[in-house]
Amino acid sequence: MLKKLSKIFTARSRPQLPSVPEGTRYYVIGDIHGRLDLYAALIKAIEEDDNAREQADTHIILLGDLVDRGPDSAGVIKLTRKWQKKRNVRVLAGNHEEMFLQSFEKPDILRHFLKHGGRETILSYGISKKQFNAMTLEEMHAMLPKIIPQSDRDYIEAFEEMIIAGDYAFVHAGVDPTQPLNAQKRSDLFWIRDRFLNHEGPLEKVVVHGHTIFDSVMDCGNRIGVDTGAFRSGVLTALVLEGEDRRIIQTDDGGDTIEIRSADSTR
After folding, report:
1. More confident position, 257 or 5
2. Residue 64 contacts residue 159 (beta carbons within 8 Å)
3. Is CB count within 10 Å lower at the N or C end of the chain?
4. Which CATH fold would you assign to the domain 21-264?
5. CA separation (Å) from 19 to 61, 183, 191, 225?
């Protein structure tokens, strides 16, 4: 009798870890920022990883900031649309998608966009550096709708703001820790930093986010940051969630070829 009671007590004392719904597998990709090379390699690694494991209801989530800074934002958008035809891929909007769309409104916003990586995005749509450098800001603003397809703008406009799965919430930048998830401001979801990053208490869900660059995946218990600064570090990261398990898959261009790294995530 004592042995049975001991077993029951031990089972109940085990802390319950955050999890995604049973039978699902989530691949959550950090900020790509125009690094088509790393992104294409990561897609290949994810497909191989998923096919090598037990069948599951597989979901892919991109945490926003697909565009700007890196050399091929247009290619990243094109490849994402292609991947969505084969897989359940959902895309969150980031602050750089917001700046991109707002740059069509007036030249002053375009100027701000160009200072934060927009130059590379515009070049990726097929104009030369010589053409770019020869244009005034007003000329460039008038040219944007001609070189960037309306279909791409409509596609980006439809990106989501938040996705919830089990004990996790996926957003681009973070959340206001003083507000419930259903009352978050769009501006905080896209731009928040210190108020979110410095919060040490529990949150409604474990928040998985990008936006703020870390040298490696930053697991703080109440949040997990997966932006490893692909555009400057050459490392693009996917967090893999399955049940209570967490793993990491990364593509790294530190050598002559892009390498794939896989590891269990630390809690």
Report:
1. 257
2. yes
3. N
4. Purple Acid Phosphatase; chain A, domain 2 (3.60.21)
5. 16, 23, 26, 17
Instruction: Give the pLDDT mean for 217-230.
Output: 97
Rounded CA separation 162/176 (Å): 13
- The pLDDT score that the predictor gives to residue 109 is 94
Place of tokens 């218990």: 221
Q: State pTM to two decimals.
A: 0.92
Here the tokens at position 237 are 């990261």
Question: What one-character-per-residue DSSP string does 54-116 give?
Answer: ---EEEEEE-S--SSSSS-HHHHHHHHHHHHTTS-EEEB--HHHHHHHHTTT-HHHHHHHIII
Quote the tokens at residue 232.
């400057």
Angstrom distance (rounded) from CA 13 to CA 80: 44
CA distances (Å), origin 32, targets 20, 88, 131, 151: 24, 18, 26, 20
For residue 92, pLDDT beyond 80? yes
pLDDT in tens, 143-158: 999 999 999 999 999 9
Sign, CA torsion 47/53/59/65? negative
